[in-house]
Amino acid sequence: MDKSPIDIAAELVQLEALTLFELKGEWRRLHRMAPPKRVSRDLLMRGITYKIQERRLGGLSPSTLRKLAPLSAAEDAVLQQKAVPPITLKAGSRLVREWRGVTHGVLVLDNGFKWRGERYASLSTVAEEITGAHWSGPRFFGLRKSSSRPPAKAEPAGAKD
Fold this sequence. Notes:
Layout: H1 5-15, H2 20-31, H3 41-57, H4 62-81, E1 94-99, E2 102-109, E3 112-115, E4 118-120, H5 123-131, H6 137-140, E5 153-155
Antiparallel strand pairs: 1-2, 1-5, 2-3, 3-4
Helix pairs in contact: 2-3
C-alpha cells in the first residue's frame, strides 16, 4: 500500500484525459498483454482501473478466492459438456471427397476405414494419405463445419468408387 486512496483517485481521473491509443498502451503496461480486440473505451477504463486498484490496495482476499474456486470448476464442467459430440458413422457407409481432380471413396468399417483396398484406423490418417498433409479427417470429409470447401457426399454402400 504505497499510495493513499486519494492518490489513486487522482490517477484514475487522469485516465479520463487519455486517448484510446494511450489507454491501450496503459492496458499493455498493467496487464502485460495486448488488450482485447474491439474493446470499448469504457471496458478498457474498467480493466485499467481495476488493475491499478489491485496493485495499490491488493487483490482479492484468500477467502474470496476460495469462494470463487467452485464457480470456476462448475464453469469448466459446463464448457466440457458443450464439447462437440463425437461423429458416429454406420459401418457400410461410404464417404466421397474430390481432391485435386480425383474422387476418393472411403468405406466405413466396424473398426476403421477402407480406402484403396487398405484398412486405416483413423479417418484423419486417410485424409493425410490423400493430401500429404495433416488434416482432421472429419473436417476433410465434410463431417465437421468448414467454410472453405464443399462437404463430402455420403453414398449407399453399393455405389461405385
